[in-house]
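Worked example 3 (structure in, sequence out).
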C-alpha cells in the first residue's frame, strides 16, 4: 500500500511539472490521496489494535482454560483418592492382589527354570543359588495355590452342600431346621458375593473412565500404566462375575431342592407326631374312664390303689412300645446296641436294674402291697410303718407308734424310702400279708418262786381270751382263706400262756392275737388288767430286782414284802 502511495505521488508531481493547466486538478488529487493515506493508516492502526485485543482475549481464554483443566484434574484426582480409600479394605481386591502375585511368581519361576536350562556352563555356586530361588518360588506358589486359576481364589466356588441325615425322630426336626438355616445363609452369602463383584466391576469402570479423562488432560506414563492395569483387572472381574452368576443360579436351584426335601420330611415327622399324640391322648382318656368306672366298685377296697398302679403301668408300657416301633426302623439294630451296651449298663446302673427287678417281683408276687404294715431292718436300724407307695425304684413307708418305736427308736412319724432291691438282701417283715390283719403279741410278767404260778396262768389266759376274742375269730377266718394259697398246719388262734423259770423268778408269758395296726393299744389295755388281777391274789407276788438284809430272827424268810399289802387305788381313765 505504501508503494502504491509513492507511485501516485510521483505521477501527480510529474503531471504538475509538465502540465500547469492541470495543477488545480492535481492538488485536488493529492489532497484526496493524502486523505486516503491517512484513512488507510487509521485503518491499519485500528486493525492492529483489534488484533492485539484479540490476542489478549485468546491469552485470557487460554489462561482460563488452563485453570479449568487444572481444577478438573484436581477433581479427578480427588475421585481417584476417594476410590482408593473405598478399595483399601475390599477383600476381593486383596484376593486379586494375591492372584497377581501368583502370576508374577509363576512368571519368575518359569524364567528361573529357563535360565537354569540354558546356562549349563555356569558354576556350581550359581547353580545352587538358582535351585534355592526356584525352591523359594515354588514354596510361595504353594502358599497361594488357590489363586492358580481364580482371581478371587476359593471364593469363586460356592459353599459345599453338606449331606443331611434322614429325619427319623422329633429331635431330628431341630437339626433339620438348623440345616435349612445354614443352607439359606450359604445361599445368601454366595448371592452377596455376586452382588459385591458386580458392584466392584462398576466401580472399576468408573475409576478407569476417570483415569482416561486424566490421561487426556495430562499425558503421563503412570496414568497409562494404571489404565492398562485397570482394564486387565476389569476384564478379569467381568469373567469372574459371569462364572459366579452362572454358578449362583445352579447353586440356588440345588439348595432350594434340598430345602424342599427336608421340609417334606419335617412335614411327615410332624404328621407322625400328631398321630402319636392322638394315640397317647386316646389311651390316657380310656385309662381315665376305666379308673373312673373301677373307682365306683372299689371305692371301699384297698385293692383299687394296686389296680390304679397296674393301669398306669400298662398305659406307660403301651406308650413306650408305640414310641419304639414308631421311631426305630431296625429293631435288630437296637437289640445289637443294647447287647453291646448291656455289660456297661449293668455295672453302672446295677442298683437301678435290681430295684426295677425287685419292683417286678413285688408287684407280681404280691408279697407287699400298698397299705400293708411292714418292718424293715437295715444295719441295725428297725422301722415299722405303713406302705404309702410302691414305685419303680423304692417303697415309701410312714413310721407309726409301735413297740419298736417304744423299745428301740424312741421316735416315730418319719417317712422311710426303701430301695426295691433290698428285698433280695435285707429282711422285710409284712404284718398284713394276704389279707391277714392280725399278729401275735405277748405280755411277760415275772412272779416270785413262792407264787401260785398255776393260778397266774389261768388269770392271764382268761384276760387274754376276753380282750382278744374278736381278733381270734377274724384270724380263724383269714387263715382258712390262706389255706388255698399256703400249706398251713398249726393254725391255733386261741391265746397261749407259757411259763418259764428264770434266774430272777417265774415268767408268765401270755400271747394273743391283736390288730396289726393297733397292737400297742391292746397291750397297754391288758397289761394293767393282768397286774391288777395278780395284785388281788395273796399267793401271787410280783418279782422285781430288790435287796434286803435280815437283822433279826424271823420265820418269814422272804421279808415283810410278802406280808399283807394295801390294795392300790383305782386310777381314773384319762
Amino acid at each position: 500500500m505504501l508503494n502504491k502511495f509513492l507511485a501516485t505521488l510521483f505521477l501527480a508531481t510529474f503531471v504538475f511539472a509538465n502540465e500547469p493547466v492541470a495543477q488545480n486538478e492535481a492538488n485536488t488529487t493529492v489532497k484526496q490521496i493524502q486523505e486516503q493515506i491517512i484513512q488507510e493508516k487509521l485503518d491499519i492502526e485500528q486493525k492492529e489494535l483489534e488484533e492485539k485485543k484479540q490476542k489478549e482475549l485468546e491469552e485470557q481464554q487460554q489462561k482460563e482454560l488452563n485453570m479449568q483443566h487444572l481444577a478438573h484434574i484436581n477433581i479427578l484426582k480427588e475421585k481417584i483418592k476417594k476410590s482408593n480409600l473405598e478399595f483399601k479394605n475390599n477383600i476381593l481386591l486383596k484376593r486379586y492382589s494375591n492372584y497377581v502375585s501368583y502370576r508374577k511368581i509363576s512368571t519368575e519361576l518359569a524364567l528361573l527354570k529357563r535360565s537354569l536350562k540354558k546356562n549349563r556352563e555356569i558354576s556350581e555356586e550359581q547353580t545352587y543359588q538358582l535351585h534355592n530361588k526356584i525352591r523359594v518360588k515354588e514354596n510361595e506358589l504353594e502358599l497361594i495355590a488357590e489363586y492358580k486359576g481364580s482371581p478371587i481364589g476359593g471364593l469363586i466356588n460356592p459353599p459345599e452342600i453338606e449331606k443331611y441325615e434322614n429325619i427319623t425322630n422329633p429331635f431330628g426336626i431341630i437339626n433339620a431346621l438348623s440345616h435349612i438355616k445354614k443352607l439359606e445363609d450359604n445361599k445368601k452369602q454366595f448371592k452377596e458375593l455376586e452382588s459385591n463383584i458386580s458392584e466392584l466391576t462398576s466401580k472399576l469402570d468408573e475409576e478407569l473412565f476417570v483415569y482416561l479423562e486424566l490421561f487426556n488432560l495430562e499425558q503421563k506414563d503412570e496414568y497409562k500404566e494404571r489404565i492398562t492395569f485397570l482394564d486387565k483387572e476389569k476384564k478379569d472381574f467381568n469373567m469372574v462375575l459371569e462364572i459366579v452368576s452362572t454358578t449362583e443360579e445352579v447353586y440356588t436351584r440345588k439348595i432350594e431342592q434340598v430345602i424342599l426335601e427336608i421340609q417334606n420330611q419335617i412335614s411327615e415327622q410332624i404328621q407322625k407326631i400328631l398321630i402319636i399324640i392322638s394315640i397317647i391322648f386316646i389311651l390316657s382318656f380310656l385309662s381315665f374312664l376305666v379308673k373312673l368306672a373301677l373307682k365306683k366298685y372299689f371305692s371301699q377296697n384297698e385293692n383299687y390303689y394296686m389296680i390304679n398302679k397296674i393301669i398306669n403301668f400298662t398305659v406307660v408300657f403301651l406308650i413306650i412300645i408305640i414310641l419304639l416301633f414308631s421311631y426305630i426302623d431296625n429293631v435288630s439294630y437296637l437289640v445289637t446296641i443294647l447287647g453291646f451296651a448291656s455289660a456297661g449298663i449293668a455295672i453302672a446302673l446295677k442298683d437301678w436294674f435290681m430295684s426295677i427287678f425287685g419292683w417286678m417281683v413285688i408287684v407280681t408276687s404280691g408279697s407287699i402291697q400298698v397299705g400293708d404294715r411292714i418292718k424293715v431292718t437295715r444295719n441295725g436300724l428297725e422301722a415299722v410303718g405303713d406302705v404309702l407307695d410302691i414305685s419303680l425304684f423304692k417303697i415309701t413307708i410312714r413310721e407309726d407308734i409301735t413297740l419298736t418305736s417304744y423299745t428301740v427308736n424312741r421316735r416315730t412319724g418319719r417317712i422311710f424310702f426303701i430301695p426295691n432291691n433290698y428285698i433280695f438282701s435285707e429282711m422285710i417283715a409284712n404284718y398284713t400279708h394276704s389279707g391277714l390283719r392280725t399278729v401275735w403279741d405277748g405280755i411277760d410278767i415275772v412272779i416270785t418262786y413262792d407264787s401260785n404260778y398255776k393260778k397266774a396262768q389261768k388269770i392271764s389266759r382268761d384276760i387274754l381270751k376276753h380282750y382278744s376274742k374278736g381278733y381270734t375269730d377274724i384270724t380263724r377266718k383269714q387263715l382258712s382263706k390262706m389255706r388255698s394259697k399256703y400249706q398251713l398246719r398249726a393254725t391255733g388262734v386261741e391265746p397261749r400262756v407259757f411259763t418259764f423259770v428264770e434266774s430272777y423268778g417265774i415268767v408268765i408269758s401270755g400271747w394273743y392275737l391283736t390288730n396289726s395296726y393297733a397292737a400297742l393299744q391292746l397291750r397297754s389295755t391288758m397289761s394293767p388288767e393282768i397286774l391288777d388281777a395278780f395284785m388281788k391274789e395273796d399267793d401271787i407276788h410280783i418279782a422285781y430286782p430288790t435287796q434286803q438284809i435280815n437283822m433279826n430272827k424271823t420265820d418269814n424268810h422272804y421279808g415283810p414284802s410278802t406280808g399283807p399289802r394295801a390294795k392300790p387305788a383305782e386310777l381314773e381313765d384319762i
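Notes: Strands lie at 373-378, 381-390, 394-399, 415-419, 427-430, 438-447, 496-502, 505-515. The mean pLDDT is 80.
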